[in-house]
Structures are given as C-alpha cells and as structure tokens.
Write a structure and sequence with these properties.
- This protein has eight helices and nine strands.
- With 220 residues, it is of the alpha+beta class.
- It folds into two domains: 44 residues, no CATH class; 150 residues, no CATH class.
- The longest helix is centred in the first third of the chain and has 12 residues.
- It is elongated.
Length: 220
C-alpha cells in the first residue's frame, strides 16, 4: 500500500486540530479493509466529495453550529424575572472569595431579564461531557448566560420563589456567564447547589464539564 503524507503545518492551528479530530474518528483497521483504503487513496476526488458532504453541507448555518444550537435546550423548569444587575468588579469578587486572581471573561448581561434553565445534553442522554465539550456547546450563547451577580441575587431572594425552592435536591445550576481564575490557574464558574434546606453558593472547575443533574441559568 502506498505511503501516505503527513498533516501540513501551513494551516492555522484550529484547522490542524480539525484534521487531527477527523483522523481520530476514522474507522479502526479491523473495521476498514485495505482495499477500501487503497480505493480512496487512488480516488482523492471521491474522498474529498465524501468529506465535503459531511463537513460542508449546503445549509444556512454551519452544521456543527446547528448541532450545538439543538443541544442548548430549555428545560421549562423555571421562569423568574431578574432586575438589571451590574457585573462585579474583580475587587468585588475578591472581597468575598479571596482565592480569585482574575476574571477571564464576563459576558453576562446587565439588563433586566427573565431567568430560565437550559441543558446542553441531548434529549434522553445521561452521559456527562467534559469541560472542553461543555465550552463548545455554550460558545454560541455567551451573551445569554447569566453570571455572578445573577446567582448572588437569586440566592438572596430564593425564599420568594417556591418554584426555585422546589428544585432543591433535583439539580445544580451553573452561571457560566463569568469565568474566574484562581491563583494556581484553575478556571472556575459559579453555581448554586443545595445545602440542607437552602440553595448555597459554590464554584467548580470548568474542566469538570456538565452532567445530567446540571442546569445552566440563562436570560431572555
């Protein structure tokens, strides 16, 4: 069988990463015959056409973005009107959590919004996703993600919302509109989690990802 070339280094990093990802998803040697591999090697046009059909379908939105949009789904569990709230300064976050070194990003809105909950897992899925996949699935929705100030307000007023209290013990709620960095370089997001008979403030590593018990607070 002819020797095959290597991945070109003349392309941008994101494209090289895509090439690597495609290679990793190819059928294993025990699933693909050498005859088929030779046929594709000797008919590059056929292989190019097949890959283009998979990666570049003629739709208004790129297929990958469409998939991530479909995975960003409202759960219908909560609808709470929040007032206009200012994003916190670094000093304000550090006054309560002295381990915070910096704010990596804060895309959370400062407008009055209606809080609702979404999941980024496929319907019926119980499988967790890692941090990198989690970030990919929320990347197109950063402007709608709620942050630190929204979590703080909701915790302060939690007793006023029976529907919020009814979710105690059933889920945790991420507020990934803000990402902070601690003194050893870990990236964290705020979330609400049950603590006895109340919701309380917690933080978790973004790299931990998202699981079936998770919800994401968004505003609309």
């Amino acid at each position: 069988m002819p020797k095959h070339g290597t991945i070109s280094t003349k392309f941008p990093g994101w494209y090289i990463q895509l090439q690597t990802d495609v290679l990793l998803q190819l059928p294993r040697p025990d699933e693909l015959s050498e005859r088929v591999a030779d046929r594709l090697h000797n008919n590059r046009g056929l292989m190019k056409k097949a890959l283009r059909a998979a990666l570049c379908p003629p739709v208004t939105k790129p297929a990958v973005e469409t998939i991530f949009t479909e995975l960003f789904r409202e759960t219908g569990e909560l609808s709470i009107q929040l007032p206009a709230l200012k994003r916190p300064t670094l000093g304000e976050t550090q006054s309560k959590y002295d381990w915070i070194k910096s704010i990596e990003r804060d895309t959370s809105t400062e407008e009055s919004v209606t809080l609702s909950l979404v999941t980024v897992l496929a319907a019926g899925s119980t499988a967790s996703i890692g941090g990198r996949e989690y970030e990919l699935r929320i990347a197109e929705h950063l402007d709608s993600l709620l942050g630190f100030q929204h979590r703080e307000w909701l915790l302060e007023h939690q007793a006023e919302f029976p529907e919020f209290m009814a979710l105690l013990g059933k889920c945790y709620i991420d507020f990934p509109g803000i990402v902070v960095v601690n003194r050893v370089g870990d990236r964290l997001i705020p979330y609400c989690n049950p603590n006895g008979s109340r919701w309380d403030d917690f933080w978790h590593w973004l790299r931990d990802g998202f699981n079936v018990d998770g919800r994401i607070a968004v505003g609309k």
